[in-house]
Each structure stands twice: as C-alpha cells, then as structure tokens.
C-alpha cells in the first residue's frame, strides 16, 4: 500500500514536471517569435528628484502582450530569455528604444532626462557588451550620461573582475550605473565600496511596510550607507505620500513608484511629463 502510494506520487510529479517543461518550452518559443515579430513593447516609469520635485527620467520596463489584453509578467519571462540567451538581443533592442526615447524627450523640451535600462548577467558576460552599448548609443547620437544601466547585486557578485572591468569602461564612456533591488542580494560591503557605480536603488521590500506598521529601519540604513559611500540613492516602490516623505526626510535623492506613476507607454510618458511640469512650476 505504502509502496503503491509512493509510486503514484512519483508518477504524479513526473507528469507535473513534464507539463512544466512543456510549458516553459512553449513560452520560450512564443517569446522568441513575438520578439522577432516586434510585438514586445517598452514602457517607462518616471523617476523624481525629491529635492527639486522634478521628474529627471524614467526606467525602461519590458512589456510582452499575452494576447488577451494583458501582459506576461517580466518576472516569469525574463528568466526564460536569460536562460536561452535571447536576453542579449532583447537587451540591445530595449537600449535602442531607450535611446529613441531620450531623443524624443529632448525634441519635446525635456532635456537631460535619463532613461535607465535593466541589464542581465548573460548580457554582461557577453564580451561585446560594452561595445554594443556604445555603438547603439552612438547610432542614435545619445549622450551616455542620459543612459543609466541597472544591474542587480547578484550580477555584481557573480564574476567580480569581469563586471568591474566592464563597469569601469562604461563609466569612462560616461554612462551611469545603478545597483538594482539593493539589499535583497548578498553583495559584500567592502566590495561595494570599490565598485564604480553611481546609484543604489533601495528595493521595494524595504519600503512597502512603511506606514503599514513597519519602522523603515532597513530603508534608513541603506540610505545612510549610500550617503556614506558618496552614492546617490533612489527608493523604488514608493506607493504613498508617507513613504515618500519618510525617505525624503532621510536624504534619499530620488523616488520611483506607483505614488507618482505606474509604468506607461512612451506617448503617455510625454503627456505625463508635460502635466507634471505645468503643475509643479
Ligand atoms: P525592477 O528592475 O526592479 O523594476 C521595478 C519593478 O517594480 C517593475 O516591475 C515595476 O513595474 C514595479 N514597480 C514599480 N513601482 C512599483 C510600486 O510602487 N509598487 C509595486 N508593487 N511595484 C512597482 P515589472 O515591470 O513587472 O518588472 C519586473 C522585473 O523584470 C524588473 O524589476 C526587472 O528585474 C525585470 N525587467 C523588466 N524589464 C527588463 C528588461 O528590459 N531587461 C531585463 N534584463 N530585465 C527587465
Ligand atoms: Mg530595474
Ligand atoms: Mg528594482
Ligand atoms: Mg527587480
């Protein structure tokens, strides 16, 4: 009886695993098709300078339509794109869109707005990464200072020498670099000190309980750490005025989150920028 149960369970899990693998393969196939059929989109989420109360730029975020009016979550499809290496092509395309967006904003009078793009490990590992970034940026005549590259702590810690070399080159070329989701990875603090980076992005994890029973002590510690290291600090996932006031009081430089705006298509971003500026000037 017990043996039978175990066998049944094993068969059940084997079938589940097959389903899971089939589902992943199907997602990968559809993602690849849709990407090369140009069905992916890049949306933008505004970033605010807390002292000047001005929008200073936006983060570029991938959107993959799911065919029923919604979108697949990047949290499920980005890992698949990383796994297959497709993220290298997708990443260059996102950067290209970001450059186009910088130019569109400049034409509309939003000068020196910065677009941040997320960069995955397989892109960084690619020996052509820095050259690709530089050639895309040059193709669109965009000043590298208007492009920020976001990398997560896990990327930084994965292959430190490769990453530092690439970051140093990027910095020399004038790009800015932010450590994304800061505090959720495991970067060694002594190492962080040596990294050629410009900004820490405090993860939403440390923000979300502020005003809902949390004391914000970890957010505070990260903001202090960033300041001591001479880095700019941006808080992500700011959803309420209270959360924004909290990080602002601690000297956090910038904020990004639903409180100001959710990610939106490029044309809506331009409307948002015009309205925001007319309200706050
Ligand atoms: P991320 O880079 O940390 O981006 C921030 C995520 O938090 C975005 O989710 C954004 O929509 C969401 N968010 C922003 N403000 C708030 C808020 O106030 N409340 C809540 N609950 N969420 C907020 P999204 O767009 O689903 O992207 C998820 C992740 O997928 C990104 O996290 C990033 O790691 C990855 N990703 C997105 N686009 C790209 C891309 O072009 N390339 C790469 N390599 N990764 C990307
Ligand atoms: Mg990011
Ligand atoms: Mg983040
Ligand atoms: Mg993230």
From TrEMBL:
Which lineage?
Answer: Bacteria, Pseudomonadati, Pseudomonadota, Gammaproteobacteria, Alteromonadales
Q: Where is the EAL domain?
A: 24-277
Q: Could you cite one Gene Ontology molecular function of this protein?
A: cyclic-guanylate-specific phosphodiesterase activity
Which residues of the full-length protein are shown here?
A: 250 to 530 of 530
Q: From which domain of life does this come?
A: Bacteria
Organism, per UniProt?
A: Psychrosphaera haliotis
Q: What is this protein called?
A: EAL domain-containing protein
């Amino acid at each position: 009886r017990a043996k039978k149960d175990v066998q049944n369970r094993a068969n059940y899990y084997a079938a589940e695993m097959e389903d899971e693998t089939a589902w992943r393969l199907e997602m990968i196939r559809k993602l690849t098709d849709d990407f090369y059929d140009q069905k992916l989109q890049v949306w933008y989420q505004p970033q605010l300078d807390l002292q000047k109360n001005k929008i200073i730029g936006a983060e570029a975020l991938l959107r993959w339509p799911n065919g029923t009016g919604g979108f697949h979550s990047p949290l499920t499809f980005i890992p698949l794109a990383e796994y297959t290496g497709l993220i290298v092509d997708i990443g260059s395309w996102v950067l290209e869109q970001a450059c186009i967006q910088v130019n569109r904003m400049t034409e509309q009078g939003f000068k020196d707005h910065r677009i941040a793009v997320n960069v995955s490990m397989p892109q960084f590992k690619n020996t052509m990464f820095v050259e690709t970034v530089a050639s895309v940026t040059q193709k669109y005549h965009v000043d590298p200072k208007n492009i920020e590259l976001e990398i997560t702590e896990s990327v930084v810690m994965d292959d430190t020498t490769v990453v530092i070399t690439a970051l140093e080159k990027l910095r020399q070329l004038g790009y800015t670099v932010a450590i994304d989701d800061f505090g959720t990875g495991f970067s060694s603090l002594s190492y962080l000190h040596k990294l050629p980076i410009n900004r820490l992005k405090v993860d939403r994890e440390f923000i979300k309980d502020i005003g809902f029973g949390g004391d914000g002590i970890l957010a505070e510690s990260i903001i202090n750490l960033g300041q001591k290291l001479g880095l700019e600090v941006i808080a992500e996932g700011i959803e309420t005025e209270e959360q924004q006031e909290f990080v602002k009081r601690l000297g956090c430089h910038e904020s990004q989150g639903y409180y100001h705006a959710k990610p939106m298509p490029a044309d809506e971003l331009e409307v948002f920028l015009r309205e925001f500026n007319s309200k706050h000037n």
